[in-house]
Every structure is written in structure tokens, then in C-alpha cells.
């Protein structure tokens, strides 16, 4: 693409952005410098999560930990609890570790270049480019799902994702200007989020409609093409809802690494493709039968949850403990369950248990 054409397109997009930019709590107002902490926090939260879901979490984090140093000083358990419900929990652990690294080794200042940013915990190519451009104004090619969709339609790229990602990034690089790099990065993401949407794009309002090859060919709504996804397998397990005499419930913390790492859970069996038999599952129970006031009782219903690579079905069984014997875990009063770092899956388990157990 000739440089003059690229410049005309970026100028046109920036003019649209100046009129119609989204007002977001992490976004600096026109003429104000961006806050690197806010940019970083929002970009980590926005990974595979919608803006609408992120806004209340962002505001709560900022109110509780207004600086990267404050976040670094917080116990990781509190950070995980505040993150609960936002999903992809490795992000929360990396967020806390990154805050500590920036505070302890860089005096609370984020590096400005992409290479140094990529060395920080939880920061990959996209996030490094976004911080470099938005927080520091450096020319960086920022490509998320919105940008891929815009590029595929603008240039009528019909090859499917994910294999075509490098080509879409190269096309995005052709358009990325040196001046107002941060505004341009946010503008092209706004374009994808508001006008060039996955379904029913508002092409009549788009500042790039005259140049859009996908629109000219009448194929814009079908782009980007995607390779067929393999069907997700289903795994199954049994969760153990144990209530003590005082009404508290037994929880435990998951291992720090792996799926839902570091989060609290209602104890359960391993998750596997085969359906569990209750007698077989009892070897995973956190309390032996001798410490229960009654046998395990399956509760009506099934907890269903979908992760990135598989579906999960959990049966919930309930019992009362004879007391509160020493056990690895936490006896949590029912009225304090909301304070625990329970992921969405475990909140579903709690809801089913509370509605069906007693």
C-alpha cells in the first residue's frame, strides 16, 4: 500500500476517533497523558474478556489499589478474591507478580519499549504493544481480535484464522502511523468494537467504507474466515459439599499452578471423561465416612461449565460433618462465602448446594 494511502486512512480514522471515541475509565481524556498503570491493568483484564465485564472490576481494583505499588503490597489472596468471576485466573497471579516486579526492580515505573515489557510476568506481544503505544506513544502494531476483523474486511482477506494472523498483523503494520500511535491503536480497536462488529457491521458509518475491499465485494459480514474448531470434549467430576455443626462449609485452595490455580474451591474429584461412581469417588472426599454424620447424598441437578478446551459437568454430593475436625482447608461461614476467591465454576456449585442441600 502506498504510504500516502496509509496516511490518508489513518488520518481519516483518527478524525473519526476524535469525534466518536468511547469513554472508558482507563482511557486518558484528550490532551491528558496516559497512566501506564491504568493502561496495563485494563489490558490484562481485557484479555479474552468484554469491556462491559471489565469496567466494574477495573473500578474496584483502582479504588482498592490506586497505584502499582499498592497492588504489589497486597496479599495475593486478596488480589485473587477481587479477581474472582473475571476468569482466566492465571492473569490475576501474573498481575500481582508483575506489580511486584515493577515496584521492586523498577521503582514503580513500567518500561516503555516492547522488548522490556515482554519480560514482565503476564505480558505478551499484544499487551506489550498496547502499553508501548497507549501509555508511552511509541509506534507499535497493536492487534487484537477487533483489529484482525477490521483488517480482514478492509483488505478482503479470505484465508482463515488462525493461520492468517501473521498476514493480518503485517497489514495492520502498514497502516500504523508514527504520530498519535496510542490514539490510533485505540481508534482501530474502537472501530472493530463499535462499527465493524462481528455481526451486522455498520458499514454506512465507517470512516473506511470507501476503501473497504470486503464491502466492495459484498463479503464483509463473512470475514474473517475461521478454520473449523475441534469439538470440545466433556469431563466429569463430583464436588463434596460438607457442612459443619455451626453451618460453615469446607473449602480448599487449588494448587498455585494449573487451571484455576490459587483459587478457592469446593473439594472435588479429578475431572475425567468417564462418569464417576460415588463409591469410587469417595477416595477423593476431604473427610472420611467416619467423620460424617450421614452418608454422602447426591443433590438434584448438575453443574455445567465451559472452559477454553473442554466442557465440565459436576455432580454435587452433600453431607454433614460430626464436628470441625482438623483438615487441610478452610471452614467458611455461609455468610462469608462472598469474601472467598471462588471462581465462577465454584459459585455455580455453591448456588446449587444452597438451593438443594437442606
Which helices and strands occur, and which strands form pairs?
Elements: H1 3-20, H2 36-46, H3 51-64, H4 68-73, H5 76-83, H6 90-106, H7 114-118, H8 125-136, H9 145-154, H10 165-175, H11 181-194, H12 213-217, E1 234-243, E2 249-253, E3 264-265, H13 278-281, E4 297-298, E5 303-306, E6 311-320, E7 330-332, H14 344-356
Parallel strand pairs: 1-6
Antiparallel strand pairs: 2-3, 2-7, 4-6, 5-6
Account of the protein in words:
- The protein has 358 residues and is of the alpha+beta class.
- It contains 14 helices and seven strands.
- The chain has helices at 3-20, 36-46, 51-64, 68-73, 76-83, 90-106, 114-118, 125-136, 145-154, 165-175, 181-194, 213-217, 278-281, 344-356, and strands spanning 234-243, 249-253, 264-265, 297-298, 303-306, 311-320, 330-332.
- Helix 9 (145-154) crosses helix 10.
- The termini are far apart.
Detail the poorly predicted runs: none
Cα gyration radius (Å): 24 Å
Number of distinct beta strands: 7
| SS class | alpha+beta
Global morphology: elongated
Biggest sheet layout: 4 strands, mixed
Report the mean per-residue pLDDT as an integer.
94
Q: Report how far the terminal alpha carbons are from each other.
A: 68 Å
**β-strand amount:** 5-15%
Count of helical stretches: 14
| Helix percentage | 40-55%
